[in-house]
Amino acid sequence: MADPVAPTSPQPAPSGDFSAAVRKAGLLAWDSTGAEVDASLRGQLTVAFLGSASAGKDSAIRAVFGIDFGEISPIPGSTSSLKVIPLDAAGQVLLVNAPGFGDVRADVDQVARKVMDDLDVIVYVVNAEGGATIDERRDLDAIRNGYGGKPRPVLVCLNKIDLIRVKEREAFIAATLEQLGVARKDCVVAAFDPLPQLAAAPIGVAEVTMWIHDQLAVSGKQLLFSKHLRNKAQACEPIIHAAAKRASVAGAIPVPGADLVVVTAIQVKLIRDIAAVHDAEIDKEVALFIIGELLSGGMRSFVRWGAEALKAAGWIPGAQIAEAAILAVGAVVAGATTFGVGKAAIQYFQSGRSLDSGALRMVFDAAAWDYKRRGEAATV
Ligand SMILES: Nc1nc2c(ncn2[C@@H]2O[C@H](COP(=O)(O)OP(=O)(O)OP(=O)(O)O)[C@@H](O)[C@H]2O)c(=O)[nH]1
Ligand SMILES: [Mg+2]
Q1: Distance separating alpha carbons of residues 192 and 204, to the nearest angstrom
Q2: SS3 state at 125
């Protein structure tokens, strides 16, 4: 067996070189990611909220998008039972609010029917109080098989869960899902408009947005969706998780000599996506400052941990040693730093674009450690 190569004596990573490398990779990524973000904001997205009377469709739309359906003019061709409203002036993003029963396409005109045929995602709201009915099962089966013959993702929301006693909830959820023939992964337990004495805030909104985001990632429409959500910070969560996952899969290592280009490109794109969700412009220099400051400035705790962990794994810049160990550490570092960059970017936009680097660093470090800890917990 070959002798393991002794790690080099611990030296701080050359942060000057590292900053320059990050900047170079960031500049490279800047131009290409701009076109990518623009492209993902084009196109058409339609999300439908279906369900029986009083199930909570309007409440769901209010909790997720922050709009009151009744106050916006529906597009012509809608009826009182099926309403279609645009979320933006160009009508790129449409919401449908309709009863679930029967073929609602039958009694609307061609425009609304076309909308129903082009649905991207369906949220089917069930009133938990009283449980699911046979009609709802039949209706849901028809919806799952597709309007216009096209099957599409259907999320079932068991709404008004606040009205079910806490100790009865789990059994109730299991029984209702069984009755509806729905897998747990395609269900969110929710209370979109809970009684204030039972829950202080809506329940399940983050899970609904996460589920829809992940479904839309297949067609590349997720950013268009996130941009219209009520809670901007929450809207960015699935984007950050997806980026961190991509970064860690890339297994690249944000220290000199490693595949910095891939991870930096993911991070630049992440910051641009977060800017788009906040409807804000982001300056190239600001984006590069955020990434550069967080990853290199002063070698703070998380980045220092990464550099030292890599050395412990036998990493020497430029050499191909203990590759598997390096990849494992590199994946954690890439995922965690990307997660941290995303959280710091949210902080930047939420604070009205104030570049307080001390505050950004605190957010970054806490998020990166948190991501690492949760990653370890998941692999135990
Ligand atoms: N306790 C409780 N009540 C809710 C919840 N969600 C909605 N409601 C109430 O249920 C009633 C119906 O809610 P809507 O959102 O109007 O339901 P809808 O599906 O749009 O109803 P229709 O358009 O009439 O079919 C309202 O009084 C809501 O306040 C919830 O999570 N918990
Ligand atoms: Mg309604």
Answers
A1: 7
A2: strand
- Say what the pTM is: 0.85
Return all residues near 261 (Cβ < 8 A) that are at least 6 apart: 25, 28, 29, 252
- 229-86-73 Cα angle (round to 5): 120
CATH number of the domain to which 216 belongs: 3.40.50.300
Determine whether the shortest distance from the Cβ of 163 to ligand 1 is under 6 A.
Answer: yes
Boundary of a domain, candidates 174, 199, 226: 226
- Do the beta carbons of residue 55 and residue 127 sit within 8 Å? yes
**Residue 196 C-alpha to ligand 2 middle, in angstroms?**
20
Give domain status of residue 3, yes or no: no
Q: How far apart are CA 37 and CA 39, in angstroms?
A: 5
Determine if ligand 1 sits within 6 Å of the CB of residue 59: yes
What is the phi/psi pair of residue 175, to 5°? -65, -40
Same domain for 208 and 351, yes or no, is no
Give pLDDT, residue 10: 36
Please give the order of strands across the beta sheet that includes 121-127.
Answer: 83-86, 93-99, 45-51, 121-127, 154-159, 187-189
pLDDT tens digits, 182-199: 999 999 999 999 999 999
Q: Is 57's C-beta closer than 6 angstroms to any atom of ligand 1?
A: yes
- Residue 6: inside a domain: no
Q: What is the pLDDT of residue 289?
A: 86
The β-bridge partners of 51 are 99, 125
Q: Do both 248 and 356 map to the same domain?
A: yes
Task: Identify the residue whose C-alpha is closest to ligand 1 atom 4.
Answer: 193
Centroid of ligand 2 to alpha carbon of 50 (angstroms): 9
54 shares a domain with 166: yes
CA pair distance 29, 282, nearest whole angstrom: 14
- 79 lies in some domain: yes
Instruction: Determine the structural domain holding residue 371 and report its residue range.
Output: 15-40+231-379
| The pLDDT value given to residue 49 | 94
Tell me the C-alpha to C-alpha distance, in Å, between residue 266 and each of 144, 249, 294: 35, 11, 15
Same domain? 157 vs 254? no
Whether the CB of 302 sits within 6 Å of ligand 1: no
- Whether 23 and 96 share a structural domain: no
